[in-house]
Amino acid sequence: MVATKNGAAIDFAEFKQSWRVLLLAITGIMISINAALLYGFGVLVIPLQAEFGWERPALQAAISFLFGGAVVGLQLVGWLNLRFGIKRVTVVSLLTMALGYLATTQIGGPVWTLYAAFFLLPIVGMGALAVTWTQLLNLWFLRNRGLALALGLSGTGITAALTPPLFAWGVANWGWQAPFVILALVNVVIGIPLTLAWFRLPETGAAVEPGIAAAAPVTGMAFREALASPKYWICNLALCLVVSAVMGVVTSTVPMLRDRGLDAGAAAQVFAWFGIALVLGRLIVGYLLDRLWPPGVAAVSLALPAIGTMIFLSGNDDIAMLSFAAALAGLGAGAEFDIAAFLMARYFGLKDYGRIFGLHQGLITVASAGAPLAFAAMFSATGGYGAMLTYCTASTLAGAAMLLLLGRGPQAALQPQAARA
């Protein structure tokens, strides 16, 4: 038991009971297709360009197709889980996703074959997307749900740190197909065995969700009230601006550094600091949001990527400074999801949280999918990354500043666990 600032206590018995579930969720989020291909894509850009002659702006558009496929997969997986059971759908998805990775090694010719592969992979692997692993954590963790979700979502940071060096090693030894073979093996050798061994629902699973609903505050705005609230649109626009900038850093850092003369290994090592900082940012900001003025914490943390992009803009080629710039971007990227969940619950409540936060996530997905297309157009028009970095600097500063307009939150602040649920 650990005392909190208001005298309450945190019971960590859930972690003792469900540590296997937590580790499984972290692993599942680490190897989820959106995380693996998103954070490793920068390493693939130049090898694919050299192999097939595809222009770099055209390659950037592949990430938009990846997100588009994820949107489709997320609409289907809920129905399949109800029809066949969540564990069965997850295991089958891990297997079909591995087969999809192997099939991707056969792309070639027109660039639309890459688009098709990236669009279909999240669909055939729909049961292994992050939503499955967060649902599992929600079922097992009640008192410490927010902390469990923060730890689980930190798996994306581990992916961002490990994937670029692993992909670079594979490409250097076996060519551009190697990363897809590696991902397939990870699914088969790690993902499926752990899921078969540790994936289980609580025995009282049928009663878990009603229990959560009863324990959480239910006050707040209705969906239509939130739509009419200027603060809701401030949150939406501010976080969309920041997320679009982060997407530029994620997809462009490695090829940008390669253009500056760094070899694949050095560029990947620089970007690895993005992933390390992403994990730290998520945990540190989550801690501070409960203790300080949330918009202030959000504004400071989300402005950090702007410092990183300004370092990239300066043309500094020192490895330490480039790594520092990547880490600053990672700190902001790691904080964004926790900040969004916290602010939506704090300012608009839980009465209609599903639809309010759901619309926000839809807008974030659109921003994430559209950003690579916009950055590809900028690169095509200018022949470099200066315009993209300028946009990223301006949008992160603007988004961070907009959050300061939220003012004080409601007097009856919601529990952190509920806010992140």
Distance between the termini: 21 Å
Structural class determined from secondary elements = mainly alpha
Please list the strands of the largest sheet in the order they lie side by side.
Answer: 1-2
Count of extended strands: 2
Main beta-sheet annotation: 2 strands, antiparallel
Multimerization state: single chain
Task: Please explain how this structure is put together.
With 421 residues, this protein is mostly helical. 80% of the residues lie in helices and 1% in strands. It is built from 19 helices and 2 strands. A two-stranded antiparallel sheet has the order 1-2. Helix 4 runs antiparallel to helix 17 and helix 16 packs antiparallel against helix 17. The longest helix is centred in the middle third of the chain and has 30 residues. The protein is globular, with a radius of gyration of 21 Å. The two termini are 21 Å apart. The N terminus and C terminus are likely disordered.
